[in-house]
Structure formats: structure tokens, C-alpha cells
Specification:
The complex is a heterodimer. In chain A, the strands form two sheets. A five-stranded mixed sheet of chain A has the order 2-1-5-3-4. A two-stranded antiparallel ribbon of chain A has the order 6-7. Helix content of chain A is 36%, strand content 15%. Chain A has nine helices and seven strands, in the order ββαβββββαααααααα. Chain A has two domains: 112 residues, Ubiquitin-like (UB roll) (Roll); 131 residues, Alpha-helical ferredoxin (Fumarate Reductase Iron-sulfur Protein, Chain B, domain 2, Orthogonal Bundle). By secondary structure, chain A is α+β, with helices and mostly antiparallel strands. In chain A, α5 runs antiparallel to α7 and α5 crosses α9. The longest helix of chain A is centred in the last third of the chain and has 16 residues. Among the domains of chain B are: 164 residues, Flavocytochrome C3, Chain A, domain 1; 152 residues, Methane Monooxygenase Hydroxylase, Chain G, domain 1. In chain B, the strands form five sheets. Chain B has a five-stranded parallel sheet with strand order 5-2-1-9-17, sandwiched between helices. Chain B has a five-stranded antiparallel sheet with strand order 11-15-14-12-13. In chain B, β1, α2 and β2 form a beta-alpha-beta unit. Chain B is globular, with a radius of gyration of 25 Å. Chain B starts with 14 loop residues before the first helix and ends in a 14-residue tail after the last strand. Classes of the chains: A alpha+beta, B alpha+beta. At the A-B interface, α1, α2 and α3 of A face α2, α4, α5, α11 and α12 of B.
């Protein structure tokens, strides 16, 4: 591990009692934060301090704390998942911050992700997009053909995997000035479009998922590319282009 | 009361087929009249909910996360086993069965494990059909690798994110059923009790975490798939929210809890950095395909490394002790998890640890040999038969990145060290729990109508789970076992009709939950929930951890008894009951962990032998290997709840009969 060092920091955190309450930024001071701590361990430390002084702790979403569940979701110093690239908030470490620094922490900001409490937002819109078509309609009997009966070109399989690596955290939406979900939807559509198993329903899938995306109130894509920059899993813009091609060809068929 | 495991008669390879043929069915037109509750949406829960929805039952699925896709199965890294024998290295259903029984140190049920091995191939077929993007070779066919405790390559994988890809596959099947209206999903809901009517499981009480409201949900069968209880140690590789509450509530209502002391301490995790640490991170066992584990052979070198006077790369080959290769030559770095973990503890206890934290606990996982080997192979494959040293190193690193890229990145993010240049530092950490709710062959607990699947049950892994077998079990239970066995149970429920929730049983259960919540909220103590959880974790790690003895276990039982009293006297839970309250959620979970911790110590004390992950210092041979006692302890310890002081729980024994495998000393040398 790196050299042991503790820092003192100031925090400006969005506090909001519930979905209908009005929120505001509150200021906190936190001393003796280990630079080896993760960002969320720093928040644990703040909450411990708040509880011990009879104040209400800050609510934030988190679970696996190893960058894969997609539950953590903080806007830190004006950036989704904070100053580091290719990372989730839980994998961001305090060594990226300076002693005496003031850190701003806000929830995801997007119309389609309403605030639930403090730093927690409602991302169920993503689930509903998935329910609209993010699957292969195969029954779960296990009575399918042998897994090796259909060879898949390694490059396509690898590309499908890279698209499927999306963790559904919503950083792409939060960082987009239009609040667009095109990277999330594009990744799902691409995963299936690249695999023979996904081809059968390709037309309905892209039409249904895009329709649901629009109904949820996500904005349009204006190709700024901000989503790709902030995506903790490096999901490529190529996926949006592929979805657009799929959508166009589906629309022509439809 | 005698435990009836309901293992079918007949030869091992025909038991499941015959059993399925004899199970009762529910006709499609009757299924919509029947409600099924599934708690948890990991691999077992999501696959079960999707399957029951597809069959036409009315399904309600619950998870505490904001989306079913976030259950902790998502974090499984290395892979999933299946006896496909695609690599032509002599694998078969029997070998997977045998390896799993032996890996579990002869403390698992033969019939369950054989069924698991039988259905393993279907899982891979199913997942590929769902569009799960497994790793493939250049011919377009599925690739495999090796895991600990095996001598074949039967592990299917998707980089270091296999759990993620499998869970997203199950989640896609579940999403499809939610979209079709067959499954109603309750995210951000936590099950806080099971409701029994006339002895049968008839529903649950769940708390809506957004509003704090308590809800009554009825069903004809309840499936618990809520995962394991590793977080009893506070620090583990589990997700922060992973908890034992659903399992513990059914235990309190009459389901036996089996082998609670069988805990898997995973050998390759990133070592602890400090007291504010909230969780530990696993580095997949698959890395042991490519990495060699070592410590400095001389204590003074280890000391010099800890104080920063020497670097790992400074040590010559002859000054390194590759202790797994030395002690277990035939399995080497791929020795099973329990054995590898203990070996790491042994060398660190002897003063060879390399980590500069409070405990000096850490060993190296070194990729430099693999970089050379694979770099040379890659150069040859590209037609370069005379590569320079630089070219070899560069190609070797590229090869590693393709296989394990996400793990190496994760390691660097956490430790600020580059594992392509310097060996990883690793140490064992709590990872998986083999114990769990006791179930029979049908995966039904001792409460009729309450089924338990995946890590939450005890059934398949004995005293030690082999790598890449948890994913296999989760999906096997959910896709291929429960749909048959639960339907058999439900066949007798087609005339029951809708179960009312305004009955005394539901009211009473809801009131009890409300009371326990109010008690915590109004307690006004002085210490946070985490304060108590960390204390519990330390007792568990030091006295019910990698190595246990009679004195320590007795102390643990007393200390946890005291901790329980302190918790209720002095815990502080800010906020209110009728709102989103994360501290309250934690407090409810920790209250259950405290009771469970005591039962684990009791179970470990009672089991006077060493087997798998359960190492009792009193029972070891001259070389420090485990000494099993099949005569006296060849049974499943199933505990019956008997009040909140778990040391008073009542033991029931299910004798384990080995009819098809010859029970033997477990040797990996």
C-alpha cells in the first residue's frame, strides 16, 4: 500500500429528506481520513461522526463496493463518480484528494432519476427499459441446443461482452447535458445484436427498448460523447452507432 | 424429531431422473391460482422467479437493492463449472461429483451433489441461449480454465466478470417475466419475517425501505434465496447489504440451521488497510492459474520488505518460498481454498508475512513467470521465433490483460500498485458460507412450504466449496431443481384458494416486527450499529475464524452473549421508522448476525474434528493437516432454535451415508 497519510477535508453534501422535500447543500468537516480509504469509507466515517453527535447520517446507495453492482452513484466535484476515470465511486480512493480540500457531493442529476433521499435516486426506469426488450425469449428449461453447437466469431463475442459489461449505474445519463440513456440502451441492444441468439428478435427489441426509453423521459443524444468519458466500464460510443443502425433498419422493416 | 432428507432410492445416477418422474405436477390452468414468493434476486432467486413466472404461477419477487440486477452474485469473478469435457481432459459428471464431494471434505450429501453435477451442462446451454457472452477461442467455441481442487479445465468464464454476466442473463429472463406481468417485482423491500398458518409457510412481512411501511404478502410457497452470512465477520468479500435476516427469521420460526461453522475463508483477497475499512475485495481464484504464491524464505527478508528496505522484485529465486508448490506438488498453486488459506496463515504466523499493516499479514501472488511463458508463446504464435526480452514481456503483459484485465485494474485502483510490474499482495478473507438453512433433497426446509436455495441453504458444498461451484449451484437450484420440487408441493394446494392476509397469524407477525423496529428506534443509546458490528466481527475473526480451539470458542460464546446485551442497551438508531432509514436496516440485520454468531461458535465447539474450512487446533496431524473424525462427526449438524441465546439451541443430526464414493483422507499432495 502507499505511504500512510491522513488528510482533513471539508464536505458540501446535498441533503433532502425525501422525494417531495426541498433539498439543500450542507457543510461538514471531517478530519483524519486515511488516503487508503475508499470514497465511501470516507462517507462511512462521516456518518459515524454524525451518529455519535446525534445527527442524521447521509443516505447514499452502495452495495458490492468492488465496482460491479452499479449501485453507487455520486456526483463528486461536478463529475459522475468523481475525478478519476474508468471507476465507480466505491473504487475511488481518498488519495485522489488533497489535504484541506472542499469536496462537493450531489446525487445523479436527471429528470428520469428522481431523488429518493439525500444522495439516493430512483433508477427503476432502467429496469423498465430492460423489461421492454432486453432479453432473448428463450424458456428456462435448459433444453436448448448444446452450447458449442453454434460457434461465434471471437471478435463478435468479445465485443458483445464489452457491451454487456455495463453495470447500469446511470453515470452516462447523469453526466449527459440532455439526460440521455443512449449509451445504456445502446450497450444492451448491441450485446444481443452481435450474437446469433439475439438476431431472431432484433427488430422488436430495438423498437420496444427505444420506445420505453423515450417514455421514461430520457433526453436525446446530441453526440457530445460525455457518457463514454464518464462510463466506469468504458462502454464505447460504437454501441450507440450500432443501435442507431439497428433502429433504422427495424423502422424500415416496421 | 428425526430429520428426513428424502433422498430417493436407487443408483446415484438415476436418483434425480426417477425422482422427477415420480413428482406431482400442477396443470397449466391451475398455476395462475397459485402464488409463489421469492426472496432475493441473485442467481438462485432470479432464476427461480423467472422459471416460476414462465410456468404460469403468480410470482412476487423481493430484493433489498434498488434493482434485482444488483444482487451480490454479480460480483462473482472467476467462473462456473460444468462437466462438458469440451477440453478433452477426461472430465465427466462423475468426476465433477467426486471432486465436489472430496473438495467438501466428505461433509456433503452424495445425492444432492450428483444432481448438481448432472444438471451442470444444461446451465451452460441455457446461458448461451440467453445471450450470455462467455469467453471463446479463435475457433468460436467456448473457452475453459482450471480452478482449485481439480485437475481438469471445466470452468467457463467471461473475463473476471462471470457472475455479472450470468446474473444479467438471469435478470434478463426475470425482466421478461416482469414485463409479461407474470412476476411482480418488489425492489427496495426487505423481508423481516415469515408467516406460518397451520404449520405451513404462507407468506412474509416485508418492509418497504422507501416509506418504512410494513407489508403483508401471502403465498402458497415461499422460496428463500437471500445468500450467505459472511458479513457476520463485518469484514468480508460480501456486499455491504448481504445479510442473514431472511434465513434467520425462518430459522426462528422452525427451520433448522445446518453446519453454521462451515465458512470459507478465501485465500486471495487484498489485505486489510486500516480500521476504517468497510469491506474486503477478492482477487479471483482464477489468478492462481497464472500466479505463483510465495513469501520470503528468510524472516529477515520479510522484515526488510515490511519496513520498505527491500522490494519483492529484489529477492532472488532461491530466497523465495513457493510454499504451496512445496507442500502440495500435485495441485500446487491450485490447492483448494481452505488448504491455501491455512497455509498462508501458517507462513505469516511464522513471521514471513510481507504486508506493512498492524498484523503483517500478506503473501505474494506473482505473475512474472507467467508473463515470460505466455509472452514467448504469443511471440511464436505471431511467427516471431526469436523475440527479444522486451517483446516477450510486452506480449506476456498483453496476454494477462486479456485474461484478467478487470482484476488487475481493480487491484491497482485499490492499492495504488501496478500488478503487471510487482507481485500482488494478498491474504485470506471471509468469502462464502457453506452452512445455511437445512433442506431436504427437495430443497424444502423443516417448515413445510418454505424452500431455500443457493448459498442460503447448506446442501451441496460440505465443509469447503470448490471455486466456480457457487454460480453452478445457484442456477441449478433456481432453473432446474425448484421448478420440479416446488411444483410437487404445490400440487396439493390447487384447492386452497387465495390466502388472506387479514388473519391473526399475519397480524401477529406484523406486530412483532413493528415492536422490534420501535424498540431499536426508541433505544436512544450512545453507540452506532457499526460499533457493535465491528466488535462482533473481531470476536468472530479471532475466535471462530481460520483456526479455532475449545478455549477461544467458549470465550466467543460468552463474549457474544454480553455483546447482545450491550447492543440492546446502548445502540443508537437515528431517524424514524416510517421513512428511508439505512441505520435501522443495518440494526435489524446486525441483531440477527449477533444471534447467528453465537450459534456458529456453538457449532464449532461441538464439532470436535477438523474438516474443510473448520480447523480445530486440537485435531491436526504432525504436518498441520486436518484430522477428520468420520466415526463421530460424519453428520450434518442441524440446529433447532431455542431462544435468542443461541448456545441453548438443540442439535439434530443427519447421518451422512457414502454409498457411491469411498470415503478417504483428503489428500492434495
Amino acid at each position: 500500500m502507499s505511504a500512510k497519510k491522513n488528510i482533513n477535508i471539508n464536505l458540501k453534501i446535498w441533503r433532502q429528506k425525501n422525494a417531495s422535500a426541498k433539498g439543500k447543500m450542507e457543510t461538514y468537516k471531517l478530519d483524519n481520513v486515511s488516503t487508503d480509504s475508499s470514497f465511501l469509507e470516507m462517507l462511512d466515517q462521516l456518518n459515524e461522526q454524525l451518529i455519535n453527535t446525534k445527527n442524521e447520517p447521509v443516505a447514499f446507495d452502495h452495495d458490492c463496493r468492488e465496482g460491479i453492482c452499479g449501485m453507487c452513484s455520486l456526483y463528486i466535484n461536478g463529475r459522475a463518480h468523481g475525478p478519476d476515470t474508468g471507476t465507480t465511486t466505491c473504487q475511488l480512493h481518498m488519495r485522489k484528494f488533497k489535504d484541506g480540500e472542499t469536496i462537493f457531493i450531489e446525487p445523479w442529476r436527471s429528470k428520469a432519476f428522481p431523488v429518493v433521499k439525500d444522495l439516493m435516486v430512483d433508477r427503476s426506469a432502467f429496469d423498465r427499459i430492460q423489461q421492454a426488450g432486453g432479453f432473448v425469449s428463450v424458456n428456462t428449461s435448459g433444453r436448448t441446443i448444446d452450447a458449442n453447437a453454434t460457434p461465434i466469431n471471437k471478435q463478435d463475442a468479445d465485443k458483445a461482452f464489452m457491451a454487456a459489461a455495463c453495470i447500469g449505474c446511470g453515470a452516462c445519463v447523469a453526466t449527459c447535458k440532455n439526460g440521455s440513456a443512449m449509451l445504456f440502451v445502446g450497450a444492451k441492444v448491441s450485446q444481443y445484436a452481435l450474437l446469433p441468439q439475439g438476431k431472431v428478435e432484433a427488430t422488436e427489441r430495438v423498437l420496444n427498448m427505444v420506445r420505453q426509453m423515450d417514455e421514461e423521459g430520457f433526453g436525446n443524444c446530441t453526440n457530445t460523447g460525455a457518457c463514454e468519458v464518464e462510463c466506469p466500464k468504458g462502454i464505447s460510443l460504437e454501441n450507440i452507432a450500432r443501435m442507431n443502425r439497428e433502429y433504422l433498419s427495424a423502422s424500415l422493416k416496421g | 424429531m428425526k430429520l428426513d432428507s428424502k433422498i430417493p432410492e436407487g443408483p446415484i445416477s438415476e436418483k434425480w431422473t426417477n425422482h422427477k418422474n415420480n413428482l406431482k405436477l400442477v396443470a397449466p390452468n391451475n398455476r395462475p391460482k397459485i402464488d409463489v414468493i421469492v426472496v432475493g434476486t441473485g442467481l438462485a432467486g432470479a432464476s427461480a422467479a423467472a422459471s416460476f413466472g414462465e410456468m404460469g404461477y403468480n410470482v412476487k419477487a423481493f430484493c433489498f437493492q434498488d434493482s434485482p440486477r444488483r444482487a451480490h452474485s454479480i460480483a462473482a469473478q472467476g467462473g462456473i463449472n460444468a462437466a462438458k469435457n469440451y477440453q478433452n481432459d477426461g472430465d465427466s459428471t462423475y468426476r465433477l461429483f467426486y471432486d465436489t464431494i472430496k473438495g467438501g471434505d466428505y461433509r456433503a450429501r452424495e445425492a444432492n451433489v450428483h444432481r448438481l453435477a448432472e444438471v451442470s451442462s444444461n446451465i451452460i446451454d441455457q446461458c448461451v441461449a440467453q445471450g450470455v457472452p462467455f469467453a471463446r477461442d479463435y475457433g468460436g467455441l467456448l473457452d475453459n480454465r482450471s480452478f482449485g481442487g481439480t485437475q481438469v479445465q471445466r470452468t467457463f468464464y467471461a473475463a473476471g466478470q462471470t457472475g455479472q454476466q450470468l446474473l444479467l442473463g438471469a435478470y434478463s429472463a426475470l425482466s421478461r417475466q416482469i414485463g409479461l406481468g407474470n412476476v411482480k417485482m418488489f425492489s427496495r423491500h426487505e423481508m423481516l419475517d415469515i408467516v406460518k398458518v397451520d404449520g405451513k409457510a404462507r407468506g412474509i412481512i416485508a418492509r418497504n425501505s422507501i416509506t418504512g411501511e410494513l407489508e403483508r404478502h401471502s403465498a402458497h410457497a415461499v422460496i428463500i434465496a437471500s445468500g450467505g452470512y459472511g458479513n457476520v465477520y463485518f469484514l468480508s468479500t460480501n456486499a455491504m447489504g448481504s445479510n442473514v435476516t431472511a434465513s434467520w427469521k425462518v430459522h426462528k420460526k422452525g427451520a433448522h440451521f445446518a453446519n453454521p461453522c462451515f465458512v470459507q475463508i478465501h485465500p486471495t483477497c487484498i489485505p486489510v488497510h486500516g480500521t476504517n475499512q468497510a469491506k474486503l475485495t477478492l482477487m479471483s481464484e482464477s489468478l492462481r492459474n497464472s500466479g505463483r504464491i510465495w513469501v520470503p524464505a528468510k524472516k529477515e527478508d520479510a522484515e526488510a520488505i515490511r519496513v520498505g528496505k527491500l522490494k519483492a522484485t529484489d529477492l532472488k529465486e532461491e530466497d523465495r518460498d513457493y510454499y504451496l508448490e512445496r507442500k502440495y506438488p500435485s495441485y500446487g498453486n491450485l490447492a483448494p481454498r481452505d488448504i491455501s488459506s491455512r497455509a498462508a496463515k501458517e507462513v505469516c504466523d511464522a513471521g514471513h508475512g510481507i504486508e506493512s499493516n498492524d498484523t503483517n499479514e500478506g503473501v505474494y501472488l506473482d505473475f512474472s513467470s507467467e508473463i515470460q511463458t505466455k509472452g514467448k508463446q504469443s511471440a511464436y504464435a505471431k511467427g516471431n521465433h526469436n523475440p527479444t526480452q522486451e517483446e516477450i514481456t510486452e506480449l506476456g503483459k498483453q496476454w494477462l490483460e486479456e485474461k484478467y484485465g478487470n482484476l488487475f485494474t481493480m487491484y491497482e485502483k485499490i492499492t495504488d500498485e501496478n500488478p503487471y510490474e510487482t507481485p500482488m499482495k494478498i491474504y485470506p478473507a471471509v468469502h462464502y458460507t457453506m452452512g445455511g438453512v437445512w433442506v431436504d433433497y427437495n430443497l424444502m426446509s423443516s417448515i413445510p412450504g418454505c424452500f431455500v436455495a443457493g448459498e442460503a441453504n447448506f446442501s451441496d458444498h460440505g465443509a469447503n466449496r470448490l471455486g466456480a461451484s457457487a454460480l453452478m449451484q445457484g442456477l441449478a437450484d433456481g432453473y432446474f431443481v425448484l421448478p420440479y420440487t416446488v411444483s410437487n408441493y404445490l400440487a396439493d394446494e390447487i384447492r386452497t384458494g387465495k390466502i388472506a392476509t387479514d388473519t391473526p397469524e399475519f397480524l401477529e407477525a406484523e406486530n412483532a416486527v413493528r415492536q422490534s423496529i420501535e424498540q431499536l428506534i426508541n433505544n436512544n443509546g450512545t453507540k452506532s450499529v457499526d460499533y457493535f458490528h465491528k466488535k462482533l466481527g473481531l470476536i468472530m475473526w479471532n475466535k471462530v475464524g481460520m483456526s479455532r480451539n475449545e478455549k477461544g470458542l467458549k470465550e466467543a460464546i460468552e463474549e457474544i452473549r454480553q455483546l447482545r446485551e450491550d447492543f440492546y442497551a446502548d445502540v443508537s438508531v437515528p431517524g424514524a421508522a416510517n421513512e428511508l432509514n439505512q441505520e435501522l436496516e443495518k440494526a435489524l440485520r446486525v441483531a440477527d448476525f449477533i444471534e447467528l454468531g453465537q450459534l456458529m461458535a456453538k457449532d464449532a465447539l461441538d464439532r470436535e474434528e477438523s474438516c474443510g474450512g473448520h480447523f480445530r487446533e486440537e485435531y491436526q496431524d504432525a504436518e498441520g493437516e486436518t484430522l477428520r473424525d468420520d466415526e463421530k462427526f460424519g453428520y450434518v449438524a442441524a440446529w433447532e432454535y431455542n431462544g435468542s441465546d443461541a448456545s441453548k439451541s438443540v442439535l439434530h443430526k443427519e447421518e451422512l451415508k457414502y454409498e457411491f464414493i469411498k470415503i478417504a483422507a483428503r489428500n492434495y499432495k
